[in-house]
Amino acid sequence: MACNRRSSSRVYKGFFQTLFNVGNSSTRFVHSCPASLIQNILKFRRDKPTDQLHRALDHCGVDLNHHLVLDVLRRHRSDWRPAHVFFNWSKTAGYEPSSDVCNEMLDILGKMQRFQELHQVLDEMSNREGLVDEKMFATLLRRFVGAHKVDDAIQLFRRRKEFGLEFGSEAFRTLLMWLCRFKHVEEAETLFHNVMKKGFSADIKTWNVILNGWCVLGNVHEAKRVWKDIVASPCKPDVFTYATFIKALTKKGKLGMALRLFRGMLDKGCKPDVVICNCIIDALCFKKRIPEALEIFRDMSERGCEPSVSTYNSLIKYMCKIRRMEKVYELVDEMERRNGSCLPNVVTYCCLLKSLKEPGEVHEVLGRMKRKGCSMNDDVYNLVLRLYMKWGDEDGVRKTWEEMERNGWGPDRRSYTIMIHEHFGKGRVKDVVRYFEEMVAKGMVPEPRTEKLVSSLNIRMKGRTEKQEDVEEQRTGL
């Protein structure tokens, strides 16, 4: 046995000597996948000094090209040091990084917030004319703003001419977009107005970026102010402007204002698109103003705006809640007749399943779903599982559980959570414990509410056990 271990040790030692060229500077290892070979070299020597890594890379025997270098960097998107070491080594090996390669390296360093190294790479790149392009500049802005280095991002934007890039509306919108996306809307708007004071002529697309920023933050008050500024400006609101503001208003429950905007849009000859109509229909349904929602739904086609699956699903969802099932299935039939992009989807069938009252109806809905080519997924399986548990249909639960396992859709954490909480509601403590233990054994992290339930159950069981022991002690006199 000892002899076998020594033999195996020599085999592995020989393999790594070959892989890393230890003790033999002349040997060059040929690998079927050069990117994989380099990845292994960087992985096994990740914490070694840079010069050792460079020496190992020197002997890997690969021919560097743009595709290979890019492949290696992409394999290290979440591990900046090996990527940076390899990038620097490639230049010493005679490779001249392309724009795509540099962009990938900058993106990795920015993502990991290694801005000192990022600036070094950027300074080297600035010495090569035409290397920094719009794609790379957008990456830099995104990473600076993503790290909340707003001033650095703005200063970088002002250096565009140093990199041979012109100041333009599209580039400026990119900066504003990233500022807004990372919730620096106030800074974005301040910059926007400062640039306008210097003679920049803002178009509606640039205004839309600022409006959308406030809307995404949910600040309707500021969004309303920007809307008024847009109306007062030489720019004319477009469909995207209306859609952005109407969506924000409906989300905040300001349906009256959204409807006035919607009707004003029609009066001005600006045709609402399907996104705007869906927002209004969904908001009307939420307020139980179904007849008005149906009226807008019927008018859509007349205006040349064809409804989407989301349009139908909004109506179906709320009609199921008020039990207007005849109208629900009328809409589903219409979706199927329209075919194409209007075919019922998982959301549609989940609405139908939630409206069911007894187990026998499940097969009918799932059969229809299958006939129309809509595949089952974890959402549908877990919903069916919950329904069968609620109805106490043990056979349905067992078959659904087995089908989930067979088709690779679970059971997942949600499945176990359903079983644990439903069994607890029915007072089946043994089943609660069984499913919880099975869940944990599979490495799943229970939801906080599940941990709290099991914890309280353990306390109750412990208290009950101690009480039984006290009674037993009193009975026996021990």
Automatic annotation (TrEMBL):
Keywords: Repeat. The keyword Repeat applies. Gene3D superfamilies: Tetratricopeptide repeat domain (1.25.40.10). Pfam families: PPR, PPR_2, PPR_3. One of its GO terms (biological process) is mitochondrion organization. GO terms for molecular function: mRNA binding. InterPro entries: Mito_RNA_Proc_CCM1, PPR_rpt, TPR-like_helical_dom_sf. PPR repeats lie at residues 203-237, 238-272, 273-307, 308-342, 377-411, 412-446. GO terms for cellular component: mitochondrion. It comes from the Eukaryota. Belongs to the PPR family. P subfamily. PANTHER family: MITOCHONDRIAL GROUP I INTRON SPLICING FACTOR CCM1-RELATED (PTHR47934:SF6), PENTATRICOPEPTIDE REPEAT-CONTAINING PROTEIN PET309, MITOCHONDRIAL (PTHR47934). This is Nucleobase:cation symporter-1.
